[in-house]
Design brief:
Blueprint lengths: L1 H12 L12 H19 L9 H13 L8 H24 L3 H27 L3 H5 L5 H12 L9 H14 L3 H20 L3 H17 L1 H4 L4 H26 L3 H5 L4 H24 L16 H4 L10 H8 L5 H33 L3 H19 L4 H26 L1
Helix pairs in contact: 1-2, 1-5, 2-4, 3-4, 3-17, 4-19, 5-8, 5-9, 5-19, 8-9, 8-10, 8-18, 9-10, 9-12, 10-18, 14-17, 17-18, 18-19
């Protein structure tokens, strides 16, 4: 029962918060399910917890992020993010305790595939039919749709589904699939992710999708050549045609593409946005140095910004304006945000965690466990994504630890099989 509830919990957090009766949302149900599993597992079943590997790293992250309470200026904001930290800790711990074999890990991979497909379809429908968004306001939390509409009005496409991050897993399934129909489905989903990143006109999405696709193709190049030559030619030709069509489509509808943005064609939009990010990152480092040990506290970066930066105004639709103002003024960089919020203790502990994963992944890349390789690429795509984005705390860290737990399970299973 617990593992089935965990699968349901994972599905809920992979989608944007859905509106439910009685003032609930799917993300609130996600928290309630985790609480039920925890109570049943720890207090009723009295399961013994043996902490090692990923679980210890999870505890390290939790401790050093919690210590940031020392210098908190806005305690309500800290509590808002601390609740999410606890939620991440509980869910990740449950994944660590319950996902302990190849079969369960494979089900999570299938759920990742399923949720990626649904998110891609949803984003494409909203992209091609903006009026459909009005219908979704009764089903999806307005904050998510407000940001989507805001970006559409400025010629952008933003929908935090992490499709680019999970692209290596979809490509791995495509390369290894023997049945043609399933292979075509994986190919279509992969194309959908790549095209949405291109159409989004967000440079960070495009950079991440390029990293995910190129790294996967390089690492699995030998497996690609095992595919029938005729199939390879057909897929390559069809991909080229679709990309050419997608390229002309975005130019016809928007007048420019993400390529123009990478080439810094528009000084005001492309150059100044990079400069602004540099200012925000430098400001984060400067503020962090004033509170070097434990930082300013989770979510408290905004409260330490100079008044002239906090007084900036952005046109925003719906009821999400205040939140979005604050989001724009957060450092669009994972390490700068970890440093300013949690100080050197938080940053060094986070770098230590990444160092452990780097060591693990080098060993994985030298081995023959392909699913672990795909997951490792997805993990570093996630880190790359957060290098340029003000990541959503809950979804970022749940993906962070779920991927690492899957790597642990598949890798340990592979080691046992070789003995």
């Amino acid at each position: 029962m617990q593992i089935a509830l965990l699968y349901l919990s994972f599905i809920l957090i992979r989608f944007p918060p859905l509106l439910l009766p009685f003032g609930l949302s799917s993300h609130i149900v996600f928290r309630l399910i985790n609480l039920v599993i925890l109570i049943k597992l720890i207090f009723l079943n009295k399961k013994q917890i043996r902490l090692k590997g990923t679980a210890i790293l999870l505890i390290i992250l939790f401790i050093f992020q919690s210590l940031s309470v020392v210098n908190v200026l806005n305690f309500n904001t800290f509590l808002y993010f601390f609740e999410r930290l606890i939620t991440v800790f509980v869910f990740s711990l449950l994944c660590y305790l319950l996902i302990d074999n190849h079969k369960q890990a494979n089900i999570i991979v299938r759920l990742i595939n399923l949720t990626v497909v649904i998110n891609v379809l949803l984003e494409e429908i909203m992209f091609f039919s903006p009026n459909f968004v009005n219908f979704l306001y009764g089903s999806i939390h307005p904050s998510v749709l407000d940001i989507f509409v805001f970006n559409v009005n400025r010629g952008r496409l933003y929908f935090e589904s992490y499709g680019e991050v999970f692209l290596p897993i979809i490509l791995y399934l495509f390369i290894g699939e023997k049945y043609l129909l399933k292979k075509i489905i994986y190919w279509i989903v992969s194309l959908g992710i790549i095209l949405l990143a291109f159409w989004s006109n967000y440079r960070d999405r495009f950079v991440v999708v390029c990293f995910s696709s190129l790294t996967t193709l390089i690492i699995f190049r030998k497996d690609i050549f095992k595919i029938k030559i005729k199939q390879n030619v057909i897929f390559l030709f069809a991909t080229a045609l679709i990309f050419i069509g997608g390229f002309f489509y975005v130019y016809k509808t928007k007048g420019y593409s993400v390529i123009d943005r990478l080439l810094l064609q528009d000084k005001e939009e492309d150059v100044n946005s990079l400069a602004t990010r540099g200012v925000l990152i430098n400001e984060a480092i400067s503020i962090g140095k004033q509170f070097p040990l434990t930082g300013v506290g989770l979510g408290n970066y905004y409260d330490h910004l100079p008044s002239f930066m906090k007084n900036r105004r952005y046109q925003m639709v719906g009821q999400n304006k205040n939140f979005f103002d604050a989001t724009l003024l957060y450092p669009h960089n994972l390490f700068a945000q970890v440093f300013v919020e949690t100080g050197y203790l938080g940053l060094l502990s986070f770098l230590f965690i990444l160092g452990v994963f780097i060591k693990e992944d080098f060993k994985i890349l030298k081995g023959n466990n392909n699913i672990s390789k795909a997951l490792a690429i997805s993990f570093w795509a996630l880190i790359l994504y957060a290098m340029f984005n003000p990541r959503t705390y809950l979804t970022f860290y749940t993906n962070f630890f779920v991927i690492r737990i899957l790597v642990r399970v598949f890798n340990s299973q592979s080691i046992r099989e070789t003995k």
